[in-house]
Structures are given as structure tokens and as C-alpha cells.
Amino acid sequence: MLPFYLLFIFLFMSSFCDSIPVKLEQKKILFCMVFFALALFAGLRYNFPDYKSYSDFFYLLNNKSVISSEGDLAIVANDKGYIYINKFIGLFSDNSILLFLVMAFLSVGINLSCYKKYTPYFFTAILFYYVHTYIGRELMQIRAGLACALCLYSIRYIVSKKIYHFLFVILLAATIHLAAITFLISYFLCNLKIGVKTLRYLILISLVIGVCMPLGQFLKSLPYMEGLDRIQNYSGWEGFNQTLGVFSNPTVLKQLIVSAVCLKYYDRLDKKVYAFRMLVTIYVFSLCWLVIWNDFGIIAARIATFFSIGEVLLIASFYQLLSSKKTYAVIIGLASFIFLTLNLVKGDLNYQLVFFS
What we know:
The chain is mainly alpha-helical and 357 residues long. The protein has helices at residues 2-15, 24-43, 51-62, 80-90, 97-118, 122-137, 142-159, 163-174, 185-191, 196-212, 216-221, 229-232, 250-264, 266-270, 276-292, 297-307, 311-317, 325-347. The protein has two domains: 1-181 and 325-357, no CATH class; 192-321, no CATH class.
């Protein structure tokens, strides 16, 4: 676990650049260092959860002699964009290391460029990204990682109301991970201009549904239906159909706290934070979805993760609420340390460099 904490220390120290005066050139250099550190850390890891599945998929696509049937390709998913990425990389190398490096540089690069554009407190956003979503996406679910990064990139087109640009980016993301197609809803949600009071009621109603009659069991009970087969297949897999819970789920509790702060200081933050209203709207949708589908784990988490992409930006925006930015930097550092430790212990994660595999 030591490599995780060493990288954490570097990112934590970097986050103080958001609370103390630092020259622009120095920030640019540090930003580049952070980018390469995160991209290489993800791209050069070995033997992580899902690593073998992605590696085998790459070899199956680029070495036809070991493909026995189309069923072999289902070990990851037959999303065309991801298949093309694998085949394109296979033109240059027959080693899956290059695949993980390319995916890491793309995902980390898009995410960090978005943080830099969307918030002046981007080093804080990067720190929280590292201890939470980076571990789950860039180190494990690399398809979801790149698809989520593209969804985050598309936020600018919701702001500028460029629907065709938005559609192009989301459809591209969906070719990498089909679940990204659900993010199309965000364009229309954000243009509804839902008020604070309505958002609060939606959270309350979702909590009641999630506790009393979550919807996952209903989906599991449906007979086989064409078009829902990919979802319904998960209901028979113990690792995917588990119940996440509501108030026993740390992710729900975290999102409730972040949502509560955002809604309490909504008017104040909306005047100062880029795309704040839109980020809050889709974040609340993520929370509501996670709660009402909590008894069907993979459906709840997989969709909710696309709509929670702005979480790190919202947390970074809380700098606007405190007079002492250094104090908030320390608070975020402590919270990030706790999240990192919980994620590492929960997943029993140990970092192994591919060169020593």
C-alpha cells in the first residue's frame, strides 16, 4: 500500500497551491508532474482487479488463433469503440501494457484538463479524484473510466447549449461503455432548471422509496426481454446483484452530505462556481438513482457513477465558503486520507509495478 500513500503525499502537498499564492508557471509545471504521475501510476500497474480480463480481451482481439468463439469476447463487453481501441493499439504492440498506458493517459488527461477548466481549485479536485474515483476507474474499470471522463468533458456543451457537440461526445463514450448512453438525460435535466426545493423533495422521496420499496427487485422479477438481456444477465450473478443499502452505504452518506451543503449554499455557490447548477442537478440525480435501485448493486452503482462525475468539483468549490483556505486544505487532506485508507482496505489493494510482475 506504500506507493498509494507516497502518491497521496505528493498530491496533498500539491493541493496547497489552491490556498497559497503560487506563480502561474510553477502551477503549470506542477500540473504536468501530477498528470504524468497519475497516468504512469495507473498505466504501469499490474494484477489489479479486472486487470486479467482486460489483458485477455486485448490478446483475444489481436491474436485470432486463441479466439474460439464470439462468446470469448464477452469477458469484457462488445462495445465497438473499446474494441477498435484494442485493435488499433494491437497494430503497434502485442503487449497489453500499451493498452493500459493509453487508457490511463486518455482518462487521466481528459479528467485533469476538465478540472483545470471547470475550477480554479483544480489541485484539490485532483486530490479527491485520486482517493476515490481514480482507484475505482483508472486502476480497475478502465472502460468506465474513459467513458466517465468523456461525460465530464461534455459538461461544457451543456453550459454552452451545443446539443450536437454534446450528443457526439456522449455517443462516443457509449461506444466505450454502453452505460454512458444514460448521460444523455443530463442535457434535458439541466435545462429543466429544477429549483432547490424540488431537489430536496426528490432526495426525500428517493430515500422513502429506497428504504421501503427499492426498484431493483422489480427489474429482477421481469421475464426475459429483448433489449434488457445485458442488464437481466446480471441478476443471476451473485457478485453483481447484491444489495448496497441506503444509510448503511458510505457512498450514499457521502453524497447526502455533499448534496446538503450544495443545497444550503446554493445561491452563493451558483454565482461563483462554473456550471454549479448543472453539476448539482446531475449529482442529485446520481444520489436518487443510487438510493432507489440500491437492491440491485450493479445497476445502482454503474449508472450513478456517470452522474456523480462532478463530485470532486463540488467539493473543491466549498473553498468559497470558508475564509481560511488553508484550513479547508487540511480538512480535505484528512478526509482524503480516510477515503484512501477505506478504499485500499475494502478492496485489499496492493500496488504492483508491471516491470516486477
